[in-house]
Structure formats: structure tokens, C-alpha cells
UniProtKB/TrEMBL annotation:
Presence of the UniProt keyword Ubl conjugation in the record: no
Cellular component, GO, one term: mitochondrion
Organism for this UniProt entry: Pyrocoelia pectoralis
Subcellular location, record wording: Mitochondrion
Cross-referenced InterPro entries: HAP1_N (IPR006933), Intracell_Traff-Reg (IPR051946)
UniProt KW keywords: Coiled coil, Mitochondrion
Top-level taxon in the UniProt lineage: Eukaryota
Coiled-coil intervals: 141-168
Protein name per Swiss-Prot or TrEMBL: HAP1 N-terminal domain-containing protein
Amino acid sequence: MNFLKGRPRVRGGRSVNIKDWEKQNELLASWNDEVCSGETIPEVEIISLLEEQIPKYRLRADTLTKFGGYENQDWFIPSPALQIEESDLKLSPDQIRETLNYFLLCSNRVSQMTKTYDDIEAVTRLLEEKEKDLELTARIGKELLQQNNKLETTISSLEVELKSANEKSHNLHMNPLRKLNLFKYLQVIWTNLASKMV
């Protein structure tokens, strides 16, 4: 609480009002009582809030790791994650060349991205490209939706045609059976009539 005691400082030739200084001290004291009442609560101790600059922080010692790493295996991935075998290290010249090209391409992209942080025109170009990509995506989505609607109408009309074709096929299959049954019935009647006439 040493930073709360003492005289108000004069910054840049300005005089500090004593009432403002007292209000500030009361506010900081109440804040300190509410937030920092126990020693175990804060992980970061605020050194100074009164100066017009970025506050300074002091980190406490990490009692969990003690700079020896975490004991729990879930908190880190061992390096290398996979065991390297001798057969995996034998690369063909094409694989070596393509791997090198891949790394060069990645580094070029990283350098382009770091350049764009300072270059407003590059950021504008990237945003324009994104906007064009979004417009293209919207157009493609609209066309796909139209094609989907056309396909749905085609499917429904084909289902109607299939239903009518199945009915016709069923009728064509049943008509010969009916005719055959009728023919057999007429044949039985004819034979009965012929036997009665004789």
C-alpha cells in the first residue's frame, strides 16, 4: 500500500487537486479491500495504477511447473509426436524437392501476410478478393439452388410417369390372365353344351 501514501505528484507542470487525489486514494483503497483481500486470490500484483502509462505487473512464481514442465501428460504433446523409423527417412529426390517447394511456398505466404499488416493497399486488395469470393459463392449457391429445384420437379414428374407405367404394366399383365380365364370358362361352357347336344 506504499503507492497510496505520499504527496500528489505534479505531471507536466499541472497542479493536482487535493480532493481528486483523496477521491482516487479512497477508490483505490476500497478496490484493494474488495478485490485483493486475501493473499491467495491474485496471480498478478498491480504495482502502480496512478501513473499515466501501461500498468506494470509482477508475476508470481509458478508453483505448478517450477520450470520443470507439467507432470500431467494431458498438458503437453511430446516431440516428436510419432516415433521416426529408418524407413520413413528414406525420401526420393522428388519428395525432397516437393517438400522444399512446400516450405518455400509457406514462407512466401507468411512474408506476404506480414507485409500486409503495414500495407493498407494490400489489405484493401485482400478485402476485395474476399468480397469477390463471397459474391462468387453466392452466385454458385443460387445456381445450385435453381438446379436443385429443377431436379426436384424432374424427379416428381418422373415419379408420376413411373406410377402410370407401373399401372399400365399391371393392366397389361392382368388382361391376358382375364382373357385366359374367360377363354377357359367359355371352353367349359362350350364343352358342356356340346355334350348336351350329342
